[in-house]
Specification:
This is ScbR family autoregulator-binding transcription factor. It comes from Streptomyces sp. 900105755. The chain is mainly alpha-helical. The protein is about 65% helix and about 0% strand.
């Protein structure tokens, strides 16, 4: 059971993360002064440095928090869960500041002296595990290698959101994700399996 101090510290950390996410999403890494972050959070510089050590520490925490904003919204398994992850991701990219900032920071990190593939690797491992489950359940065609497919989906989603952001402000990201699965699923699974896989934005609960 958490103590009152631990609960207060967790709330403070979350306030800082949310404020930092909003600033990073608005201004990018270089434009996100720590003074703006703590002002937005209504906290002190000391609190930020205590919890994260530096602005880079906050950025790393946001990059590595992406999956935790999506997983609680899912109940499916195997191949359907993999599809659902990308559908929830596309929907939450419209309004979730922590996810949006994490993605922006991960994609743009080279411009601010970082070179950390952890967030991409975490997505790959998560997707690979789901594909391995799908494989064990007989959902994948022979020759569909879980790790290769996972790497492709991570790379495809990364590129799609950049393109979509530039073209429509991510308004068509869900459509692009659905198109990806309609093109990809025939190479991954049989007609019988695909008949039970839904690529439908309505699967994502409204938030």
């Amino acid at each position: 059971m958490k103590t009152a101090n631990a609960e207060r510290a967790a709330r403070t950390r979350q306030r800082l993360l949310l404020a930092a996410a909003e600033i990073f999403d608005e201004a990018g890494y270089e434009g996100a002064a720590v003074t703006r972050i703590v002002e937005r959070a209504g906290l002190t510089l000391g609190a930020l440095y205590f919890h994260f050590g530096s602005k880079q520490g906050v950025a790393e925490a946001l990059m590595n928090a992406q999956a935790t904003t999506i997983e609680p919204h899912l109940e499916s398994t195997g191949l359907q869960r993999l599809v659902d992850i990308t559908l929830v991701w596309a929907q939450r990219m419209q309004h979730d500041p922590i996810l949006r900032a994490g993605v922006r920071l991960a994609v743009e990190q080279g411009s601010h002296g970082m070179n950390d593939a952890t967030s991409f690797e975490d997505w790959r491992k998560l997707m690979r595990d789901l594909l391995e489950t799908a494989q064990a359940d007989g959902e994948l065609e022979e020759g569909a290698e879980p790790d290769r497919v996972a790497r492709f989906v991570v790379a495809a989603c990364t590129g799609m959101q950049v393109y979509s952001q530039l073209a429509t402000g991510r308004a068509d990201l869900m459509e692009r994700v659905c198109d990806m699965w309609r093109l990809l699923l025939p190479s991954l699974s049989s007609d019988a399996v695909r008949a039970n896989i839904s690529v439908d934005p309505q699967r994502v609960p409204a938030t």
